[in-house]
Structures are given as structure tokens and as C-alpha cells.
Amino acid sequence: MQTTAHAFVEHSRAALADEQLRRALLNMKPGFQDRRAQSVARLPEWEDLRDQARALKDHTLAHMDVYLERFEARVLESGGHVHWARTAEEACAAVHGICQAVGAHTVTKGKSMVAEEIGLNPYLEARGLVPVETDLGEYIIQLRHEPPSHIIAPALHLNKEQIADDFHRAHTQFAAERSLAEPRALCDEARLVLRQKFLAADVGITGANFLIAETGSTVIVTNEGNGDLTQTLPRVHVVVTSIDKVVPTLEDATLILRLLARSATGQEQSAYTTFSTGPKRPGDLDGPEAFHVVIVDNGRSAILGTEVQDVLRCIRCGACINHCPIYAAVGGHAYGWVVPGPIGAALDPAMIGLAEAHHLPNASTFCGRCESVCPMKIPLPRIMRHWRDREFEAGLSPAAQRRGLRLWAWAVRRPRLYRLGAGVAAATLRLLGRRRGRLTRLPLAGGWTDWRDLPAPEGETFHRRYARHKRAA
Amino acid sequence: MGEARDQILAGIRKALGRGETDGTAAVSAADARIAAHPRGLVPARAQLPREAQVELFVRMAETVAATVARVSDADAVPDAIADYLTGLNLPQQVRAAPDPELDALPWGKRPLLTVERGRAEAEDQVSVTGALAGVAETGTLVLYSGAERPTTLNFLPDTHIVVLAADRIVGPYEDVWDRLRALGALPRTVNWITGPSRTGDIEQKIQLGAHGPRRLHIVLVGNGG
């Protein structure tokens, strides 16, 4: 995928003015946050499961080479093929080579963020193939020629009226006057259209939530059943995945599966979790004749052993995104790359470079909700802070901000002067905001006050209040 | 591709600060974990007494919009299926897995019910399959592929009927892995199925029957005692 992460600030400004988007983003609280909270409350072992999952993934990362080798050996034993890809280009070429070898024309696809990352659809289209996204959200955004705005709900940014317009435009085989006012009608129409695609496809491409070293199985977790039709009906099943998806055993995948759906959608379990091992067996009446796994690195191995290695624990549940106030304000497209939200802010600079993605770690209030809901306990604010440090060191932050920080650093090392300055500032701001208790305009802080009011300080500095409380205690 | 493989693995080893892995402690630790496949934490709700486990399975399955009909023994299954179809105004015609356990059912008791065997085809409306297990903790069915158990039956038809003996209900998922290991190498497909197909992709309003079955009906046989 072509990144536009460098334009995060401009994207955000446009997003904040987009009424349709703002309406769509309001669905996140009841749709994701409330349901997650309820399902977590029903499982008393939640925190212990998180600790175990973190330890498991840390162990796996520390032995990643061995587990990948074991995974590969088991895939080969079960009659499958393994392709390794260092880059997006190598991964796309591998998939295209498989399609070409079997003379494929139509290719169905389950939702895969790795496929989005490597730009698989445009690559295949440019070579005469017709890739069809079959996850409903992915199908909708494919009709609109848009990237996903969310890793588990790709069309989260849209309202049903927009989708109805797209269907009226794209599905000319149906009566123009039919009603598509309700989600039910949209869902049924997509089912009808895509059913034909499933049956016609030569190759089915899915991603993988896990690769199991013990058995050589790939695992997908879906709700629609599109992934299963994608990988069961065509002659060839291709799994496009990345090195960080490997786990040691079936039990280890199971541990994380107790966390994944609950974190993502608040379901106790997703409707379909499917473990695929090799091609169909002799005597099987259905299933693919060939099974290929394309294992993509694309910059991940370079994250191992660095200060941000914890991002490789991510299981792409989306919980941090669903609970992020910044994401809720600007949506996923503003981030400009496949993975948005807090995990994007932590991961993307490592994947596409700090020069391109340096705005993203600043897109945080450091409220800490992302870390508190992360099933894998990734310290997202700490990693964002790490990137902010690197951004400052590399001279990528705006000059005014850098000067301001230098001035502050100079002052804070002179405590008496700092206290004096802070006292004057607090008293002045209190005076300025005394009528309404808030400030609507402030010199040098337009970035804040253009969008919201600043609560006026009460006139006392933190230092003074702290000292007063200490005396009273 | 051999070059890509070697370079990726070498990159990982370099990042982890070690060389070729054969015979090292890292290899032993990884292989030991694979061999022992230790269970992680199993929630208390998956460790209830037998009878409570069956009740939990039914409750969890119904929570995710599956329907459950309980019958006392296998002889009552054809009636339960035929009555279910009648109740929904569906034709008395099913595509059943060519599974000896299903063949053994007394289908002759409902002569108007047409039972065809094989994999699912596009026009099949209703499928009937067995299941390896039911997992109580989330009301999840576990099905696995094989010559007698085609996977298409689980996904293509609008209505999927699963015949499950209550004594196949287990507490946690891990019990099913033990059963599968006892059967030998994993089959091509193992499906965990928790309720019918659904999507929330349009304004996060849940719709059933996105691409897979719109209805999942479980005929639970016996009391599991």
C-alpha cells in the first residue's frame, strides 16, 4: 500500500470537518467498547490470561527462527508449499506466480492486512487477474477504491446510505428502484453477488491469525464465513501471512483465542475459527488440491531485538484503535497506512520509516486506554514516547516546537526561575479566564484552542499546592 | 526463494543475538514446548461438573443465536430434523454428510424427508452433519474434515443442522485437541463454529447470514450422563 502517513495533519483537518465520518465513528462506543467491557466482565480470569499471553508471545519471539523452521517442515510434510518473501514485491510475485501456474483468472480473497500492506490487489490487477474481496467491509471499500480504515472493520468510516449508493452504482444487474435502505438488504445483496464469485474462483487467498509450529496449520478467525468459502471452494488455497504470526502449539493458539474475539468485538468467540493443514486428503470430497503459505518479513525481523520489539506481540484485534480518542475523532484514513490508531502509531514508524510516519506517535493524548485494553499488554504509550524522542533527535518536529522544548528544558533546570515563571503564568491565565472559567484563545496555543477551550488554571502552581498539602498532612 | 528464506532466518537470528541454531539451548526449549504442548490457563467455567457443562454449552450456543433441540436418543433425531424444517416452512430435503454415524439414524421413520449424501452444492438449502465435540465454555462446535465429513456442508447451505451426542460436550477447547491428537495427524480442516454466520460491517449492526449459514441448529442427543 502507498503510504500517505506524512500528511496526517492535513488528513486530520479534513476528517474533522467530515460530517459523514463523524456520524460513522459514533458507532464505535456501543459497537466495540461496550461489548468488549461486558465480555471481559464475564471472564474473571481475564488479567491472568493477558499475562500468560504476553509471556507466551515473548517466548515465541525469542525463538522465532526455530518455530518458523518447524512450521515450514510441518507444512511440507502435510503436502503444502512454503514461500518466503523479504519484501512486498517478493510476496506479490510469489502469489502471482502461484496464480499463473494454475492459469487462474478470478481470485477470491478473505480479509488480510498483510495483503493490504504488500499491495496485492493492484499487483494482481496490473497482471490481468481479478481479485475479489469477500469480507463484506473489504468488498465495500474495494467497490469504492479505498483502503481499509480499520483493521477489523474496514468500512467503519461509512454509513449505510453511502454503501447503498455504491451498490446501486456497482450492481447494475438488479432493478434500479430496489430498496437498499436497511443493512439487512445490503447484506443480502452482497451475499447474492459474492456467492457467484466464491463458486467461480480458481484461487482463494486468505490471511492468517496464527501459524502453528507444532502442526503446520494456518488459522483464520472470521464471523462471516467468507474466509472458509474462499479457502474451501477453489482448487488452490494461498495463505498470505507474516513471520510474527507464528505460535508454538495448538494450546498456545487457544490461549490467545480466548483473548482475541473478546478484545475485538466483545464476542466470547468469533463465529468461525478455522485450522487448515495442507491440501485436501485422499478421499476428501472438497477442499483445495494445493496449499501454499507465503511468509512475509517486509521489515518485521528488523524490529526484533529493538526497543520497540513489543509491537510484534500484536494480534491485530483492534482494541487499542477502538478505545483511542484520536482515532475516534479522525478515523483510520488520516493515518495514511494499513494499521491506524495507537498500534499504528507504534508500529508504522518501524515499518515505513520515521521520516514518513513521525506525526503518528504524536497523535495521542497519552490517556493510556490503548495499553489498558491491549490483550497482549503492549506498552503503546511508552513506544510512542520512544518515537517522539527519535523524532526530536532527528530534527523532524516543527521548529517552533523544538524551540519551545529547548526553552522549557533550559528553564526547568533552574528551579527558582521556573517556579517564578510558572507562578506568573498560572496567575495570568487565571485572570484571563476568570469570567468563564475557560480560555477560548491563547497565544502560541492555537492548535489547542482552535478546536476546544482550555480550562483556566485556578491560579496556584502544582508545586505550591503540593507543598501546601504536605504541610497540612 | 531459498535465498529469501535463509536471509530472513539469518536476520532473525542476528536480531536475537545468536548464530545457527542446531543443537543449541534455544532449539531444545522450542522443541520441548512443542512436544509437551502445555495448556495455558483454563477458565473455571470450562471445568464445571459434567451435567453443568452440558447446560452451559446449550446456554452459550443459544446466546450466539444458535438454536438447540434436545432429544432423548438417536432414534428421535429424524423427527427432530423434520419438525424443525416444518416449523421454518423449509422443504423436507437435506444434504447430509456421508458419515456412518448419520447413516445409522432411522431416517425411514420420516419417509417424506429426502436425505441426499455428499458434499454441499450451490443449490443445497439445508445440510446435516455430525460434530467431533461441543465446547461448553463458549457454545462452540468442533467439526473436522475427512472423506465422510465434507467442509462445504458447514458453509454453503442457508441452514446447517448439527447432530451432537451430549457425551461429546467437553469443558475447554484443549480437551478437543487431545481427542484430535489421538486420531492421528490433523485433517485438512478443523472448524470451530460458534453460532451462525454474522457481520457487523455495516454501521456495526449485527446481521446473521453474511456468507455462511443464516441458521445453525443443534440437535443434542441424550443427557451426556
Task: Describe the protein in words.
Chain A is an alpha/beta fold. Among the domains of chain A are: 43-296, Rossmann fold; 404-472, no CATH class. In chain A, 51% of the residues lie in helices and 11% in strands. Chain A is built from 23 helices and 12 strands. Chain A has helices spanning 8-16, 19-25, 28-41, 46-62, 64-77, 88-101, 113-118, 120-126, 136-143, 160-170, 183-200, 226-232, 250-264, 319-322, 325-330, 341-352, 354-357, 369-373, 380-393, 399-412, 415-432, 446-449, 462-472; strands at 81-85, 106-109, 130-133, 203-206, 210-212, 217-222, 236-242, 246-247, 272-276, 290-296, 438-439, 454-455. In chain A, helix 16 (341-352) packs across helix 19. Chain A starts with 7 loop residues before the first helix and ends with a helix. The model of chain A has no long low-confidence stretch (mean pLDDT 95). With 225 residues, chain B is of the alpha/beta class. Chain B has 2 domains: 2-36; 44-221, NagB/RpiA/CoA transferase-like (Rossmann fold). Chain B is built from 6 helices and 12 strands. Chain B has helices at residues 2-15, 25-36, 50-63, 77-87, 100-103, 173-183; strands at 67-71, 93-96, 114-117, 126-129, 133-135, 140-144, 159-165, 169-170, 189-193, 198-199, 207-208, 215-221. In chain B, strands 1-12-7-4-2-3 form a 6-stranded parallel beta sheet, with helices on both faces. A 4-stranded mixed beta sheet of chain B has the order 8-5-6-9. Chains A and B meet through helix 3, helix 4, helix 5, strand 1 and helix 9 of A and helix 1, helix 2, helix 6, strand 9 and strand 10 of B. Strand 9 of chain A pairs antiparallel with strand 9 of chain B.
